[in-house]
């Protein structure tokens, strides 16, 4: 377990550094002090770095904390987490080619089914609610466009 934690700590710090590097040419704040397009990627990158350093400190200063434990990558919770990551990746691909509404109409029910929701009414209402709330806030209030489908351009 100690070796796995050390690998995860190193990968977390490296991922944070790569995100910071990729966001380096984006603006963090505009002249009015409004957060720019690099704000959230940078915040997430610093979070990755901080959590990686915390995990590295745990490996270095508390080596007996997880002594004797093993990692089971085939357990049901881990498989569910991997499936959730695959659903998120599919959402990103769908978002690129089919736009926000279609991608979200697929993503929300898939994620709800993964989490154990089985009521068709609940799934339908939640999906419609998520799409409606995001649309109202971004299109009507913030005057931003939702990602359009690039497949049909």
UniProtKB/TrEMBL annotation:
The chain crosses the membrane at residues 7-23, 43-61, 82-115, 121-142. It holds the Pfam family TctB. Residues 7-147 form the DUF1468 domain. It comes from the Bacteria. Keywords: Membrane, Transmembrane, Transmembrane helix. This is DUF1468 domain-containing protein. The lineage of its organism: Bacteria, Pseudomonadati, Pseudomonadota, Alphaproteobacteria, Hyphomicrobiales.
């Amino acid at each position: 377990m100690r070796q796995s934690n050390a690998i995860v700590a190193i990968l977390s710090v490296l991922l944070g550094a790569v995100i910071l590097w990729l966001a380096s040419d984006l603006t963090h704040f505009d002249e009015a002090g409004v957060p720019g397009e690099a704000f959230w990627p940078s915040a997430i990158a610093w979070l990755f770095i901080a959590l990686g350093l915390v995990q590295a400190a745990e490996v270095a200063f508390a080596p007996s904390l997880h002594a004797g434990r093993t990692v089971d990558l085939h357990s049901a919770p881990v498989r569910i987490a991997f499936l959730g990551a695959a659903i998120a990746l599919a959402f990103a691909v769908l978002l690129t080619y089919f736009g926000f509404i279609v991608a979200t109409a697929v993503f929300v029910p898939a994620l709800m089914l993964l989490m154990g929701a089985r009521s068709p009414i609940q799934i339908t209402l939640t999906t419609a609610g998520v799409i409606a709330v995001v649309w109202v806030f971004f299109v009507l209030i913030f005057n931003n466009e939702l990602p359009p489908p690039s497949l049909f351009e």
